[in-house]
Amino acid sequence: MKNAISLSAALTIIFSVILTLVKELFEPIHQFLAHLSSNHWLSHSLIDLFLFIFLTGLFLMIKLKKSYEMVLFYALLFGSLIIFLFFVYMSLA
Fold first, then answer.
1. Is the pLDDT reported for residue 93 higher than 90?
2. Structurally, how many domains does the chain consist of?
3. CA-to-CA distance for 37 and 43, rounded, in angstroms?
4. Residue 23 burial (CB count, 10 A)
5. Residue 24 · residue 30 · CB < 8 Å
6. How far apart are CA 4 and CA 17, in angstroms?
7. For 7-54, what is each residue's pLDDT tens digit?
């Protein structure tokens, strides 16, 4: 179970980072997410939540044997760094 959750979390982090960059760079996507719910961050969070639950269920059915804790660690580390550097760049531009 731990392996499924670790891999699901890592993939959801990667997806969330990409979605954040895309919606900040492309206003139509930002507006689309804002119209899905009362706020674009709420839509973003719900998509992330559903993706995590779906992937966890899928990976639990597959019964992963390999440990993905380091994948999760690096996804979190590099995802945070990418978002931080992106918003620093955007605030200086």
1. no
2. 1
3. 6
4. 20
5. yes
6. 20
7. 999 999 999 999 999 999 999 999 999 999 989 999 999 999 999 999
Kind and range of the H or E element at 66?
Answer: none
Q: Which residues contact 14 (CB under 8 A, 6 or more apart)?
A: 75, 79
| Residue whose tokens read 């689309």 | 32
Q: Which pTM value belongs to this model?
A: 0.92
* Helix residue ranges, H only, the chain: 2-25, 27-36, 40-62, 69-92
Domain residue limits at 41: 2-92
63 DSSP assignment: T
Which two tokens mark 36? 């899905």
